[in-house]
Amino acid sequence: MFIHIPGKDLFVSEPDPRYFGNPKNDDPKVNWLKSRFHFSFAEYNDPQNQQFGVLRVMNDDLVQPNRGFGEHPHQNMEIVSYIVQGELTHGDSKGNKESLGRGSAQYMSAGSGVYHSEFNLSKKEVCRFIQIWIKPRQINTKVQYKSYRGQNGQADNKWFHMVGDMQENSQAPAKINQDANIWVNEFTTEQRFEIKEGRQAYLLCVEGSFELNIDSCLPLQDVKSQLINQHDGVKIFKSIILKPKGKAHVLLIEMKK
User: Fold this and answer.
1) How far apart are CA 62 and CA 179, in angstroms?
2) pLDDT interval class at 223 (50, 70, 90)
3) Which pTM does this prediction carry?
4) 50 burial class (0-12, 13-18, 19+ CB within 10 angstroms)?
5) How far is CA 124 from CA 4, 64, 81, 103, in A?
6) Contact, 33 vs 64, CB < 8 A?
7) Are β-strands 174-176 and 160-165 bridged in parallel, bridged antiparallel, or unpaired?
8) What is the distance between the alpha carbons of residues 159 and 30, in angstroms, rounded to a whole number?
9) Cα–Cα distance measured from residue 218 to residue 92, given in angstroms and rounded to the nearest whole number
10) Is 20 helix (H, G, I), strand (E, B) or coil?
């Protein structure tokens, strides 16, 4: 069981650069930011699409060179930024500052409240990153910032457990204040992912394309498949099989129902 959300159906936002303290666009035909919202966010508000389980936000952000999100507040949210292209620089009111590239992730538990910024400081290269907000199990906790610096081959034809639950004995390099896990896979061969009873997942096709099937006892030819392309989302309720069309790159957030 799964529900396919085609990328063409996502809300696309291109806000005025002044909203985050940016100068005017260098090219009037190219906005400083292009965001694809998987759930209600900013000017997009759909009462039927507010969140999926504890996953409140998934924004696919493309930031032009020398642009970014100026300092702004967050509170009581687990925030993960996964970098797909270029380099993203994080700074916050607790004194943390760091730049990370492809395959890396920045994690911030906003807890009792923090101000932060995210910038693409490159003069030439665009920065694409996936912004994920997960609702915490407790509120007003201590603010924390951690990061993971991506390694070559970390997710080649395997599920890399990037973010886990701090209350579990997880080997994930980043841990959040919620019963949720984030997995990454860059694959050229068939992959499977098990969804256990009482669990569900949201999958983003970051790059490439693949055929998605439910992993069942039926022969594959008897199970209807769905082609998933870059930017598509999928709500998943059963174990799945992914068959790439060349090479594909996915991000999967697994959580309790």
Assistant:
1) 29
2) low
3) 0.94
4) exposed
5) 35, 8, 21, 20
6) yes
7) parallel
8) 35
9) 51
10) helix
